[in-house]
Amino acid sequence: MKRLTILLVSLALAAGMHAQGDAIDAILQQIEANNKQLRANAGLVSAQKLENKAENNLPNPSLSYSHLWDSDDKDITVGELVISQGFDFPTLYATRGQLNRMRGQVLDAQAASLRQDILLQAKEICLDIILLHRQRQLLDQRLHNAEELAKLYAERLRTGDANALETNKINLELLNVRTESRLNQTALHSKLKELMVLNGNQPLTPGRPLPEPQTPGAEALGLTDYTPVALPADFSSEVYQLLAADPALQALQGESDAARKQVSASRQGWLPRLEVGYRRNTETRHPLNGVVVGFSFPLFENRHKVKAAKSQALSAEYNQENAALQASSALWQLYDEALSLSLSIKEYHETFARQRDLTLLRKALDGGEISMIEYFVEVSVVYQSQSNLLQLENQYQKAMARLYKSRL
């Protein structure tokens, strides 16, 4: 029976943790669909891709007509019509097409990076909402305890069983807790507003759209507890996977590849430009029809372009390498931070398991085993420790969220 009870409790906790993860995922999905900045960026990416394609278009065809007449006999006229189309060397269009596809991939990677930044911002706000909700629960406990003591000692002061010093101490604690509770409520409301703004100022409630635009609470959003995230046993092997999945690094790598392709395009800029067309001349009694063929040699226009492209390619390569080093260092710093936080959290839990329960302290106070001052010293340490634990858990969750940002 005991084992069955433990199993049922474990399943209930697992289901609750899964629900918390689903709540955050549902919120992130809505923000991804409704965020104004992501929508604006999607339009900008589409426009930039079209502009890149436009750079590989043929130049406009030209049409010219000349009408000449004899200065002595104006009845004698000559007409000439020329229709021509110029174009670059054909291989250059293929190279530009490859270059445009690379640039399109860079734009997609940059859009993915922006998406992850916004979703990470939203997830951190969700984690802060969970922190504020849990702090509110702790404050409600403190407030209930302080209110009971205030009533009790007000009655004792009236009957002469308590002194004014103890009563003032309780009233001060009650005032402090009420102030902290109001500040907590204000902070929670601000965080909920931030989340709503990220969602395009539309209501956010996973699976249950609200009938009217309003700011739902933490409970309605399902943001009441954290989903456990374990540290990887071997982070060395995960670093390479996380770096490979980072869209910001993918964008820089794409820029480096595109810069090298630009060198090839610049080299082909020395190839002649061609022009073909049709020509019709009516100088004789019978009109003359022919073909126009021309060449344009870029003796001056392409000067220094190859050198400039090589310099840009080298700069892009160095930027990509530097960004990869910084990203790797940042991941290791986040891992070390998360590891340190997890150790501190474990120590707090072990200490709480060994210490005296608050209920026992209250019984000791009511039984006269400890004084009011001793009680408040003990209780203040316990509440401060619990508050520290809540902060540590929040910092750990944020560190893990940043660590696995590329998986959002």
Structural overview:
It is a single chain. With 408 residues, this protein is an alpha+beta fold. The protein contains 10 helices and 4 strands; from the N terminus they run ααββαααααββααα. The protein has helices spanning 2-34, 36-54, 90-159, 164-198, 218-221, 235-244, 247-267, 305-354, 358-366, 372-403, and strands spanning 62-69, 77-87, 273-281, 288-296. Strands 1-2-3-4 form a 4-stranded antiparallel β-sheet, with no helix packed on it. A hairpin with a 7-residue loop joins β1 (62-69) and β2 (77-87). α3 (90-159) runs antiparallel to α10 (372-403). The chain is elongated and about 135 Å long. The two termini are 42 Å apart. Mean pLDDT is 86; it is low at 1-19.
What key attributes describe this structure?
10 helices; 4-stranded antiparallel sheet; alpha+beta; single chain; 408 residues; elongated; 69% helix; disordered N terminus
Quaternary structure annotation: single chain
From the N-terminal CA to the C-terminal CA, the straight-line distance is 42 Å
Unreliable parts: 1-19
Tell me the strand order in the biggest sheet: 1-2-3-4
**Into which percentage range does the β-strand content fall?**
5-15%
Topology, number of strands? 4
Number of helical segments with 4 or more residues: 10
Question: Structural class of the helices, strands and pairings?
Answer: alpha+beta
Radius of gyration: 36 Å
Average pLDDT rating: 86
The biggest sheet amounts to: 4 strands, antiparallel
Following the backbone from N to C, one meets helices and strands in this order, namely: HHEEHHHHHEEHHH
Helix content: 55-70%
Tell the overall outline. elongated
